[in-house]
Every structure is written in C-alpha cells, then in structure tokens.
Amino acid sequence: MRYIRPQSMEDAVGLLAGAAGPAAILAGGSDLLVRMKGGFVEPELIVDIKAIDGLSEIRETADGFSIGAAVPCAVLGEHAALKKAWPGVVEAAKLIGSKQVQGRCTIVGNLCNASPAADSVPALVAAGARAVIAGPSGKRTIPVEAVPTGPGRTSLAKGEIIEAILLDKRAPHAGDAYQRFIPRTEMDIAVVSAGVNLTLDDAGVIKSARVAVGAAAPTVLLVEEAAQVLIGSKLDEATLERLAKVCAGACRPIDDKRGTIEFRRKVAGVLAKRVAATAYERAGGK
Amino acid sequence: MNFDPRYSGRSFSSVGTRPIRPDGVDKVTGRARYGADFNMAGQLVGRVLRSPHAHAVIRKIDTSKAEKLAGVKAVITAADLPDLTDGDAAMYDILDNCMARKKALYDGHAVAAVAAIDARTARQALKLIEVDYEVLPHVTDVDEAMKHSAPLINDAIFTEGLEEKPVKPSNVYKRTQYGHGDVHQGFAEADMIVERSFKTEQTHQGYIEPHACVASVNPDGTADLWVCTQGHFVYRQHCAQLLGLEASKLRVTSSEIGGGFGGKTHVWAEPVALALSRKAGRPVKLVMTRDEVFRASGPTSATSIDVKIGARNDGTITAAEATLRYSCGPYAGMWAEIGAMTAFACYKLENVKTVGYEVLVNRPKTAAYRAPSAPMAAFAVESAVDELAKDIGMDPVDFRIKNAAQEGTRASYGPVYGPIGIGPTLEAVKNHPHMKAPLKQNQGRGMACGFWFNFGGQTCTDLNIGMDGSVSLAVGTVDVGGSRASLSLVAAEELGIDYSQVKAVVADTSSLGYNDMTDGSRGTFSSSMATISAARNAIKVLRERAAQMWDIPVDDVVWEKGHAVAKGEKHGNLGKLSLKEIAAQSGKTGGPIAGHSELVADGAGVSFATHICDIEVDPETGSTRVIRYTVVQDAGKAVHPTYVEGQYQGGAAQGIGWALNEEYIYGKDGRLQNPGFLDYRIPVCSDLPMIDTQILEIPNPNHPYGVRGVGETSIVPPLAAIANAVSNAVGVRMTHIPMSPPRILAALEAEREG
C-alpha cells in the first residue's frame, strides 16, 4: 500500500488517474479507515488531500460559500456566517457520528461515501448545493444530487476529486432545516431523514421550496412534488398533511435491520412536516 | 476450625462505607491490564476462520495453501482438538462450539484457525483456507424450530422429560415442569383471567471488552493462559480437559475485565489459542473482533412465552400457568427450565404450573446473561399481572402486595422461603415519591417485580499479614464490579483495622485452591464469607503470638478493635498490642501470620427487586424516551453501597436497552445482519435518565453480615416495567421485545385501524 500526501490538486488528480490498482482518497478518513479496518477495502494507493492548498478552508464569496473538501464538519459549526445562512446544512453535518468523528469527517466525504442514509446529503440537496469537481480533463460543477448514483457508487470518473461544495448566498426570508430519525439520541445512522429549504415573500407565502428525503431509496430523493405542495402556501395544517402524504408516497424504501418499509414511509412524512415547520420559522414565517 | 456463617446482627465500622476502589486509579489512567494487554516475547497472532453459513456439513478443509504462506506458524482445525471429553455431553458441546467438527451450526461458527507472525499474514492465511461446505436448510426462529417441518439441527436429540421417549428426533432438547396445586381448579375459581402470548428477541451481554487471551504451551507439558474471564479456575478445568493437560500444570491468570455479565463464563477462543500455541511452539495472542463477539459468543435466548393468570374480584390470584420456549443455540441447554423456575417466584400461589421447552436453533450457543432467563419470564408474567390488576380495577402495586410471596411461602419452583424482600420492595415503591411525579401527555408509568436465586459455591481465600502490619488478601473470584473494595472492607471490619491497610488481589490458579467463577451474584457473597473465615483464622494466630509475647495463656487474650487485649485482672498491667506491633515481632514469634479459608458458601439469600419507570412515546414515530427510572432492591447488607447502587443502575441500563432496541437480526440467509454496536443498539449515555436507587437491607440469615448477592436481580424487572409503561402511555399492550420504534408504530397503527 502506498500513502501519498500531494501538495497540489494537479498532483492528486494525476496520482489517482494513473493508479493501477484500487485507489482511495483520504480526507477525514471516518469512512475509509473503518472500511479498511473491517477488511472491506484494501486500497493499493491512498491519496491524502489535506495538504492541498485551500481545501481546508471555508470561503465566503460574492455568490455565497465555498466549502473545501477537507473541512471537518465541526468547523462548519464554528463558522458564524455559514451557520446563519444555512443552519439546516450545518445541523446535518453536526449529526454525523460523534463529536470526535465530527472533528475529522467532511461533507464531501459524506457525499462520496454515497450512502442513502448520509446525514448531510439531504440537507445539501435541499439547499441546492453544487459540487466542484477537478479531474484529468479540467473542472466541472454539478448539483450534489448528481454525485451519488446508488449505494456506494458515484458519478465521479477515474481521477476525479470533488474539491469544494458551493452554497448560494441567501435571499431574504429564507431558511432550511434537517432532521433524521434514529432510535437512540446520538451515535446512530438515519433510519429515514428529511431536509427542507424555503424562501418566503414579504407576506410569509412560500416562494420557492426544495424537499429532500434520505434513507428512503437507493439515493437521496429530491421530491419535486413536495416542493409544489409547499409553494404558494403559508404552511397551514392542510398543506403539512399533503406534504407528509406526498413525501411518504415518494419513498421507495426497503425492509432492513434499521427499519421497515411501512415505518420509513410514515416517518418520512412526519419528519418532512416537522422539518418544513422549522425551516419556515427560520425563514421568518409565522 | 469450624466457621459459623450465621447472621450475627453486629454493628459495623468499615462495612457500609464508600471508600474508593483499589483498581480505580489504574482504570481511569489506562494502566489497568485487560485481556489484550498481556504480551510475551515471540508471541504470534491468532485468527479464526468462521462459517458464513447458518447450517452446513463440512465436507473437507484444505489448509495446505495457508500452511505454505511465509510467516504462518500453525493452522488448526477440529482434527487438532481431538475429542477427549469421554462421554461428557456438555463438554463435547463446548468442544464442538470452539471448533466445528462435522457441521457448521451457525453463522460465525469457528471452522479453522491460524497463528502467524503478524495480523496481516494471519488474515491472508485465513483467505487461503479452502472449506468445502454442503449448505443445509437452517432455522433461526424459536417457534419455527419447534415445528415438525423444521430443519433438524442434531438427529441425536430426542426430547427428554416426556412421559415416553419420542420415536423421532426433533429440535426440542428437553421439557421441564414446575409448580404445585391444581391450575384447572384454580382457573375455575377465577372471576377474571388474562391470557396472552409474548416474544422476546435475542440479545448480547454487550461487554465493551472483547474476548482476549495469550496462551503459551511449553515443551515440558506446562502451560500458561492469560485471559479475560469471570472464572479462571473454571477456564483451567475446561481447557485442561479439552486439551488433555493436567489441571495443575496449566496456570490461568485472569486480567482486569471490561464486562462479562455471564458472557465470560464460557470458553470460546481459549482452547483454540492453546491448541495453536501447542502446534506452533510459541505463545499465541488471540483477540476476538467485535464482529466475532456478536456472531460467535454470548447471546441470551430468544423466547416465546404463553401466560395465563386468573384472579378473584378481591385481587387474589387463584391460578397461574406459563409455557416457556427458549432458544439454546444449536446445543442442549437449560435456559427454559430456569425461566420456568423464576417465572412466578415473586408470588404466593396455591395453584401454579410452568412448562419449559429447550429449543435448538442455528444461532450461537446461548450463554448466561445476568440472571439468565429470568428477565424474559418476568416480562411475560409481569405484563399479564399488570393487565389483570387493571381488569379487576386494582392498583398494580396493591395487587402485587396482596399476592406477594413472604417468609414461609412455598416458592413456585419448590423451596419454602426464609425472610425475603419482595413485600418490602413493593411497600417502598408504593411510598416512593416517583409514584407521585406528574406525567405529561404521551407519557406512561409502569412498574414490575423481579426475582433471582443467587448462588454461593466453592471458595478459597488467603489473608497474609506483612511484617509492617499491612494485610494482603488473595481471592479467587474475579472482580467484575468492585469486589476487591468490598472484600477489603470486610477484612478491615473483621480485623478491626483501617481499609487503607488492606490490599486485595485476584490470585491466579496456582496460588489458591479452586474457586467457582464470579456468576450467580456470588462474588462478594461467597468471597466475603471466605474472607471473614480467613480473617478469623488469622486473628487466632495473632492472639497466639500476643500470648507468646506476653507469656500468658492464649485463652486470656481477646481480639478487640484491631488489638490483642489481655483479659482478666491478673494481667491488668499489660497494655494492648496492635496488629502492627504483633506483626513486627512475627519473625521471632513463629514466622509469618496468615489466615486461610476454604469453604462452600451455602445459603445465598434469594433476591427481589421492584422497578418503576416513566416512558414518553412519540405517537407519530413510535420513538421512546425514558423519563424517570427507580430501582428498589434488597441487598441483605450493602457492603460498599456505591457499588451496590452501580449494580442496580447497570442492570436497569441493560434492561432498558433490551426492552427498547437491542436485538439480533437474522436475514433469510441465516446470517446475522447487525454484528456491531452501530446496528446492535445498546443505549448511549444520553439515552438514559439518572437511574435512582433505593437499597433495602433484609439480612440474609446465612451470612455473618447478612449479605445477599446483588448483581443480577436488577436486570429482571426492566423489560416488564418498561413494557407496562409503554402500554400505559399508548393504550396498547406491547407483547414483543424489543419495543423498537417500528414495532410501537405498527402496534399504534393497528389499533387506530381497529
């Protein structure tokens, strides 16, 4: 096994593109090291991207925020402006693993691990986040929901690395939120989850909405129909009930050790209602 | 010297205080040595190959490629552990469980093992072992396994305990029955009858420290084993028998223990490590991974239980009956029998009958788990008792008080009780402020009772007094819950010296006579009895030495508060001699001063507890939260109250996990789906409230200080108490443990849909 810590993105891309055997990218390592220890993966090459310039920074730009691929989730929680603009994304990132794990793990790692139960992904999808990808043939930017293609699989080509996640600058009267269901209080993986992002007009009517449901299909679901239910409403009781029904209906869950199909459907709807209410309140709605 | 174990009603100066434990600093600073912390020069890494199949014939194992891998020093299969059990069926099962002989009987069953120079080589070697399996149909569910159509796990099992021996083999190893009176008559006298069926899923003890050992077999036929265990003397017997060693040539040293709860009363890896060391000619360290711990060690039974209880309108129970089916893993067991014995032990019953069935399934061999079998039986019985009280219109505590067993009651499992604590725990609960705490919406309160036998057993202890007057206490019961502190308190009490002068250690198997293991809540009960006996023997020597120093008859010397005192006026001018002064002169008065004891600690007092808990349920998700929890239990005498409280809280915590989320989940392929702490959900700290405790002290007449075992009873009531609380919170009777959110939500939905 070779461990290399390149100083530039070009070198990292070159190493991955040229790898003959199985290769892995190391940022926080909270998934990779566990999988290696369990004997599930045996990479021939490990490329540690933490020394690459800029990858450990959160940059506030004219357009919004750029979160480097090596920024630990705990750092997201310490960034006041990011927390104020995207509280749902930050609260999702701060649910991953434990305090100790949050000091290492990254949202890009969470995205590329491609688990349908990943905590930060529904929040990122709801937020309309985009991934900046560096690769052998240059850079490209795609919506985060286009990164995972199934459990453990991504759309990244050989040699490609996500270098940052982009979040838009916030319009007034906007808010997002994320919640997951776990049987315990912490140290667990989502049985089902929901993220909602809303923008209101001055009267408190929902102008735009994005609703994402996690752990309810092979990838995180962006539920377009749920957004349509919310738009134009002031989140009254009837709207919430329709939202729950639509989200439950959109799920394509499985029965497994963490929950049943029936349970995931029902609770997806319950969480969507609760999360929408929080996002609405954060957006200043009453 | 005859030892009188009877309760003396004495007062105490050390016993009942709360000094810090002697192993505490080492544990919090990381210096304590657990099973994996022993190392030897030249030691190899042992690894075990395990069956991926729930049930399969092992046609052939080809180890030749693994043996040729550089760095591999030994590869073993069942052929390297020949059958030396000489018709001892229980030992044969242990041998077969350590290394599958003809068939793999569960997912995780060991089939081969390697010893190599490092972990990487050992892992590679496992991949090079070729096992030719013939996969057979399997059965993992206890009810399914009892059906005639179920795959047969062992064709030599013909159900025992039936009037006639069956003509066909089955998965039911044994039927047992307990009780007295006539239940038919009793039910005919009842005004109200509750009849229900219950299920509980399989759980693991969940100890944080995985099984770990270092084995070293020497060319001269001696061997050493360093191991994390609840009973190193028992491990020595088992390992010696399975490997054909002489017991006294195998020295077993127990490490500190990161939890056992019954799961470390059983050998798994140790005979394998010894066999590897014997073949390799070098020491071998074998540490199980968490995955292996779940798949191949531990678990308790999964159960299916039917209960029927009848009562008159005045609240008198007229008859009680239960049928209990417990999974044993793929080997014979006596788990349902224990359930059948404990089920109704809390109550005074004219007519009672319990029947137990031991059921073989393709799951790991069932091991003891803290009051083994009792929590599931209590769940079923206490749920039905609660429902019956409600149907009659009586308060559940009053209903239980009316029917509680008392001194002189004939227990449902046979014996007549002496002084017992069930009534007092119920009275304490009735008056506890917890019962008056206000409940909010979606919250429910439940309570339940529990019983455990407790055990005494063989015990051997040495007490040595150094020339500086310090006392070294060597005990043979592994310290799983603070017993070194408790036993030091007992030695200090008996000798009349300060706790800080006593240092207790757990001695290895070459340093003391045989000790039964730390199970059955016997550690402090039996070793304190042996410590008292050893101290009294030492006091006899101390008196003799003082008599010698004074040159007076020994009968004129008494022992008072740590001093020899010359009695009678004729010695009036002699000042008393302290233990330290006598010890300082011991070289001139006859050599070292010591007290020894060997005894069978009979008369372990039975133990009862009553728990109260408040649960909040989210009716939209089935999520639960424990709001308040109170344990009331009889300790006989709490030697070190802090560690008694710790046992009460620990049992409640494990019971909460079992009741709400912990379970073995098997796939259709018979493989365990959740062999790790992520998906086998034991509670984390933030899941639990502060668990309040109340210690009652109803002295055990068979112990000088009145001590009863306290370790196990606290896990008996929680399943039922929590089920009663959840049922009261949501208005639906919960009959399947664990009450995970999907199960609660499904029950609520079924109720809503009518």
UniProtKB/TrEMBL annotation, chain A:
InterPro entries: CO_DH_flav_C (IPR005107), CO_DH_flav_C_dom_sf (IPR036683), Diverse_Substr_Oxidored (IPR051312), FAD-bd_PCMH (IPR016166), FAD-bd_PCMH-like_sf (IPR036318), FAD-bd_PCMH_sub1 (IPR016167), FAD-bd_PCMH_sub2 (IPR016169), Mopterin_DH_FAD-bd (IPR002346). GO terms for molecular function: FAD binding; oxidoreductase activity. PANTHER family: XANTHINE DEHYDROGENASE SUBUNIT C-RELATED. The keyword Metal-binding does not apply. PROSITE patterns: FAD_PCMH (PS51387). Residues 1-172 form the FAD-binding PCMH-type domain. Coiled coil: none annotated. Keywords: FAD, Flavoprotein, Oxidoreductase. This is Xanthine dehydrogenase family protein subunit M. Gene3D superfamilies: 3.30.465.10, CO dehydrogenase flavoprotein, C-terminal domain, Uridine Diphospho-n-acetylenolpyruvylglucosamine Reductase, domain 2.
Automatic annotation (TrEMBL), chain B:
Pfam families: Ald_Xan_dh_C, MoCoBD_1, MoCoBD_2. The keyword Oxidoreductase applies. One of its GO terms (molecular function) is iron ion binding. Residues 1-20 are annotated as: Disordered. SUPFAM superfamilies: CO dehydrogenase molybdoprotein N-domain-like, Molybdenum cofactor-binding domain. Residues 29-137 form the Aldehyde oxidase/xanthine dehydrogenase a/b hammerhead domain. Keywords: Molybdenum, Oxidoreductase. This is Xanthine dehydrogenase family protein molybdopterin-binding subunit. It comes from Mesorhizobium tamadayense.
